[in-house]
Amino acid sequence: MTKGKVAGLLIILLLVIDQVIKLLVKINMTLGEKIYIFDWFQIYFIENNGMAYGMTFINKLVLSVFRIVAFTAAIWYIRKKAKEGASWGYMICLSLVAAGAAGNIFDSMFYGLFFTESTPYAVSTVVSMGDGYAPFLMGRVVDMFYFPIIDTTYPDWFPIWGGERFIFFSPIFNFADSCICVAVAFILLFYRKELDLRKEEKEEKE
Fold first, then answer.
1. N or C: which terminus of the chain has fewer CB atoms within 10 Å of its end residue's CB?
2. Are 99 and 11 in contact (CB under 8 A)?
3. Distance CA 130, CA 147 (A)
C-alpha cells in the first residue's frame, strides 16, 4: 500500500474517532456538565465558537472558510510529499494535522444543521437537516478534555495574584486539537528538515 493511501486511511480513522467522541458527548451531556475520571482529568463539555483551546479573535465564518482552505492545502501537500517519498513519520504527522483540521471543520459545517442547541439544562437532540441551531459553516466545535493538573490557590503573600485560584493547564480541547498539536510538536522536533520549504524551492530551481 502506498504512503498516500495509508495517509488517507489514517485521516479517515482519526476523523471517525474524533466524531464518535464528540457525538457521545454532544447527545449525552448538558453544556458545562463534568465527568470526573480523576481529579486531574475530567470530561467537561463546552462548545467553542472560535479556534483551538477556546480562542475567539477571528470571525466564525472567516475561520470556517480558512479551515477548509487549510485542509485542502494540507491534502495537496500530503499527496505531493507521498510522491516525493517523504518519510513515514513525516507522512503520519501530516495526516494528523489534516485529520485534526477535518474534525473541527466537520463540526462547523454540520453540527449547527443537525442538532438542537446544547444548554446547561437540556441535552442536544438530532433534528432534520436545517432545523438545527445554526446555519452551514456556523456550527460550534465540541470540546471535552480538561486536565487541571494543578488546581490550587496562590498564597496571600504572592504579588498581584495573592489569594486567587491557580489552575495549571486550564484549556479544554478535543481529539482533533490533540492530533494537530502532537503532530506540530513532532514535526518541529524531528522533521524540520523535511518541512524546509526554502530547501525544496532551491532544489526545484536546480
1. C
2. yes
3. 35
Query: How far is Cα 202 from Cα 80, in angstroms, rounded to an integer?
Result: 16
Rounded CA gap, 152 and 95, in Å? 38
Q: Which of 107, 143, 151, 156 is catalytic?
A: 143
Is the Cα dihedral 108, 112, 114, 118 positive or negative?
Answer: positive
The answer to whether residue 177 is catalytic is yes
Lowest mean pLDDT among 63-67, 165-169, 178-182: 63-67
Let me know how many helices (H) and strands (E) the chain has, helices first: 6, 6
Grid cell in block for residue 135 = 446555519
Report d(CA 160, CA 182) in Å as an integer: 34
Residues in Cβ contact with 34 at an 8 Å cutoff, skipping those fewer than 6 apart:
42, 43, 44, 45, 146
Q: What is the pLDDT of residue 152?
A: 87
Handedness of CA 91, 109, 145, 115 (dihedral sign): negative
Strand 150-153, strand 172-173: pairing: unpaired
pTM: 0.86
Active-site residue among 39, 107, 151, 177?
A: 177
pLDDT tens figures, 9-47: 999 999 999 999 999 999 999 999 999 999 899 999 999
Q: pLDDT digit string (tens) for 142-177?
A: 999 999 998 889 988 888 888 898 888 889 999 999
**How many residues in total does the chain contain?**
206
Q: For residues 38 and 34, what is the distance between their CA atoms, to the nearest angstrom?
A: 11
